[in-house]
Amino acid sequence: SSKSYSFTDLIRNEVTFPANMVGDFIILRSDKMPVYNFCCVVDDAMMKITHVLRAEEHLSNTLRQMMIYEALGEKIPQFGHLSIILGEDRQKLSKRHGATSCNEFKNRGYLPEALLNFMALLGWSSPKGDEILSIDEMIKQFDLDRMIPSAAVFDQKKFNWVNATHLRALPDNELWERLKGFLDAAKVTYKKDPNWQKQAVEVLKSAMETLVDGVELFKLLDDNFFELAPEGLETLKWPEAKPVVQAWIDCVKNHHHDTITESEFAEIQNKVKEKSGQKGKFLFMPTRVCVIGKPHGTELKLLVPLLDKKSLLHRAESCLAKI
Hints:
Elements: E1 4-9, E2 13-18, H1 36-46, E3 51-55, H2 59-72, E4 78-82, E5 85-86, H3 102-107, H4 112-120, H5 135-141, E6 152-153, H6 156-169, H7 172-185, H8 194-204, H9 211-219, H10 230-236, H11 241-254, H12 262-276, H13 281-292, H14 300-303, H15 309-320
Parallel strand pairs: 3-4, 5-6
Antiparallel strand pairs: 1-2
């Protein structure tokens, strides 16, 4: 036949195929197994599918499928061919670019609503220019007119930002519930007190992009994971370190409560400064080693209130033993 086939693609507008682009094509293999294009049409026709949205790689299948719809006397649905997703190297996204399944993203600590949000923005944009959208907002704002035919890039940094934004917006108790399973799987111990859990999440979530990041942060609060990093041991070799560690131990021992608040920690730091005669990095870095085993990391004024006196002394005394 010399007849050409045209259709209005929901994303690419008018598409025309010359009929002689394909010859007689197989719809049933010799082992009686029907081929993809035939199954696809029969399946969609029986389910009364009106709109087919799929990857642009299927554009070449559309001509064969239109012919089969016509031969069966079925109404041809509206087709829309979406742009493919590229990796950051501008090559087609594949396993070598990283996680490949929803379950893998889940195991890496990404939230389902963040993955949906990010995927929606690959090849579509919000008419309001919103980057962070709930499912309800996506449904309200979605329109095929906003779809773009050019390829979208899977930007990992942006995905991390979208996930972090969703994660930090969760109520503290819900974030804790989502995080708890990851902590248990990593055998991280934590206090059962809901007030402590809420405080810990509130303090640490600003440093989390994924739930897996939370595991590393909560390890800082578990004595079972406390260890002196090589750079921590180097700091303890400074001649200025010993008076700071000793002064820190004395001040913590003399503290009248089992825990130290942020304002009390500031007072203790001033006392340690006076007792040891040190300031700047010679004061702060040995103190941080006493608390987390390394001279750099999360702010002590945030971490110290989450650790009890017994834990702080145990850590500081193990540092003193290394000097």
